[in-house]
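Practice record 12: protein with zinc ion.
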Amino acid sequence: MVRIARDRIATLFALAEEEATMGRSELADRYVGLARRIGMRYNVRLLAEYREVYCRGCSAYWLEGRTVRTRLRSGRRVRTCLRCGRERRSRLRRPVPRSRELAEAPKSTRALPVEVESGPLDEETDERVEEVGPEDP
Ligand SMILES: [Zn+2]
């Protein structure tokens, strides 16, 4: 039964995508709603790839630029549903791209100041401070 449920969910999401790209978003949203209900009925978690593409508030199928807006805000991705306004925030794994870090690193092996006798060095703290700015200006 669970297998059948998974198949149906996959089918419904495929249909939802198809309808959404054709501009029939009411149908797409309906398919998402059905898929979610099947998932709940049979206690089947939706695959991660499916969980990314719909709104948890109103089951709208998210099509970039049409039903969802994606913005980057202080290192996290914020997706706003254009149907109901619900936001979904996800942390980005790597706020600074690796290539930029390397570009900013000193290129030459310059002589480092050795003579500086300073107080106890601060251990470089791994900052994991949640900095959430004001949501709505
Ligand atoms: Zn929504």
